[in-house]
Amino acid sequence: MNSLVETKRPVATAWSFALRYGLALLSVSAALGSSLAFMDFHLPQPFGAFALSAIALTFWYAGTGPGILSAVLSSLIRDYFFEAGIRAGSRVIYDLVFLVFALLMMRVVRGRLDLEQRVAERTAELTRLNDHLKLEIEKQNQIEAELRLSEAYLAEAQRMSHTGSWAWSPPPGDIRYWSEECFRVQGFDPKDGQPPYEAFFQTIHPDDRAQIAEVIDSAVRNKEDFKFDYRIVLPTGEIRYAQSVGHPSLSPSGDLIEYVGTIIDVTERRQAEEERERLREAHADLAHVSRMTTMGELTASLAHEVNQPITAVVNGASTAVRWLTREEPDIAEAREAALGVVRNAKRAADIISRIRSISKKGESKRQSVDVNELIREMITLLRNEANRYSVAIRTDLDADLPQAMADSVQVQQVMMNLIMNSIDAMKEVDQLRELTITSQRGEGRHLLISASDTGKGLPEHQMDQIFDAFFTTKTHGIGLGLRISRSIIESHGGRLWAANNAPRGAIFYFTLPIPVEARD
Amino acid sequence: MFASERIVSAMSCHKENKLVAIVDDDDSVRVTLQELLRSAGFSSQAFESAEKFLGSGQQLETACLITDIRMPGMSGLELQARLNAERCKIPTIFITAHGDEEMRFRALREGAVEFLSKPFDDEVLVESVRAALER
User: pLDDT by residue (tens digit) across B78-106?
Assistant: First the structure.
């Protein structure tokens, strides 16, 4: 292939050479022929003019070499054919004319070639620039397409997250940028164009305006970020809840240029929170009702529990009076008895306070609690109920039990429910009636608490149904205690489950997470 | 164990020592009752359950028994029945927070000298103890 090209090129050059020099021969021959023809018709001899034309033609089309050849040939032909007889001086003048013409033509041709080269160079330059421009345009188009896509993604993300973005020149400036989502959240029609700041402000609930104006003014004055929650009143009267944050852009010299920020529509989130809050309240109400029902069942036992220290108080006071009213009053003995009164009155107050704390209806409060202490307190309150049915309560509590993060009233409610269930299950059992409560570290970072009894046990095929609402095996129960207990434990991040105890009875377990920061 | 006690009690349940026994599962009631009796000039011994009282053998020396009714394990009424069955009739004063008429009637029928509701009047108790000891 290469050799073909290499052989072709000299061939082409040879052809071009032949054509160019052939043109010289041809044009001069044509000038000669035409002149001879003119003379045959007895016309004045025009060879000079024809020869100059032939020389010009050859220079123009075939270049300098063939041009010079045509000038030399023309000179020779003129000397030979037309002016053989004239003297040498005149011949030289004619030759000079041809020479000058040839030189002139050489210059013209060089000028033309220079021009052609410049044109070619400029053309190449322009072509290069054009290509570059095309590339730039292509790049620009690509960037624009990417930008459009990115904007579409951003608009979609803003729509999904209910977050609009804006830019605003500080007062008395106007809104500079207002994203599509801002229009939707604030209830403006995009067709009406970017809203003026005042129009935005008018959509804010009248009760929120003063506070927001103050927040914005203060932020602008101090060139600081701002953040505020507000309500939007839509033209339909619907209320929307939103939150806006703004961040100042400062010039290098520290002047405030503009604020950029976001508007987030938090209506759905707020409604969900309100719904959750309502559910929490309903759950707390239900738990409270359940607790009060159990407390109602316990009235006799609780009264007895309070009555014991009161009896001790009365005994102590009577004793003190007796020591004081003897013929020889014994102050020391009376004092001892009076101290006992104080001790027992405090104990009565403690019990009442425990009953009150478990009866009260309040918000769930999670705090670090000693589960063993909660178990002991619960046993104190329920001991009499257990005595009433001759149930012995045993405990096996891990002395090194870490604290749990829990609502003590709720956890006690669960314990109360489990203990009451156990007592209920043992009421009609003639054999040993024993309730054993244990606490220990369970698997993972959990405490494991169990309450096992020697009662009638659980229905084998309904082991998990006992936790369903309104499921009960009791004649007097409504079947909410275990359901509520399980939801309380699960809301603490623990589990509550049951199994049958060997050789008889049931065992309930529940776990409570140990907070990360709790010391073991 | 109870069989042998029964024989002993049948032989020697004469209460010459005038000991007052207190049976109550509640520490504070037990201790303050003992103190009250001491201030009235009686010596007493306290037991936290009916089983412990029976196991102590002190019933043979007891001239007056003050007992709670509802206790873990054996109740006060069961204790009374057990003592009666052993022919060891100790004058018994019941103290309870749950006294109803039926219970009161049952206790008095079985020979109780008094049936008091907690908290009780110290004068009534002291008089009842004194009466029991003088029987």
Answer: 999 999 888 888 999 999 887 678 888 88
pTM: 0.54
Binary contact (A322, B36; C-beta < 8 A): yes
Chain-chain contact of A392 with B73 (C-beta, under 8 angstroms):
yes
Residues of B whose CB is below 8 A from A321: 122
Burial tier of A174 (Cβ tally within 10 Å: 0-12, 13-18, 19+): middle
- More confidently predicted of B14 and A279: A279
Across the range A359-365, mean pLDDT stands at 71
Contact call for B120 and A314, based on CB within 8 A: yes
Extract the tokens encoding A520. 């073991």
CB atoms within 10 A of CB B66: 29
pLDDT at B3 over 60: no
Distance CA A485, CA A412 (A): 10
Q: Residues near B69 by Cβ (< 8 Å), separated by ≥ 6?
A: B75, B76, B77, B94, B95, B96, B98, B99, B103, B107
Give CA–CA dist A184/A265, Å, rounded: 10
| B70–A340 CB contact, under 8 Å | no
Helix (H, G, I), strand (E, B) or coil at B26: coil
- Beta-strand runs (E) in A403-486: 404-406, 434-441, 446-452
What pLDDT was estimated at residue B12?
42
Q: Is it the case that residue B2 has pLDDT exceeding 70?
A: no
Report CA torsion sign: A248, A249, A254, A256.
negative
Residue A69: in which H helix or E strand, if any? helix A64-77
The label of the residue with tokens 């994203």 reads: A179
Chain-centre distance for alpha carbon A387: 60
Q: Which residues of A touch B72 (CB under 8 A)?
A: 386-387, 390-392
Q: Please tell me the distance from the alpha carbon of residue A428 to that of residue A324, in angstroms, as a whole number.
A: 50
pLDDT at A6 over 60: no
- How far apart CA A413 and CA A293 sit, in angstroms, is 11
* Closest Cα in chain B to A333: B39
Query: In A, what residues contact B, Cβ < 8 A?
Result: 300, 303-304, 307-316, 318-319, 321-323, 333, 336-337, 340, 343-344, 347, 384, 386-388, 390-392
DSSP A341-391: HHHHHHHHHHHHHHHHHHH-------EEE-HHHHHHHHHHHHHHHHHHTT-
- Tell me how far apart the terminal alpha carbons of chain B are, to the nearest angstrom: 29
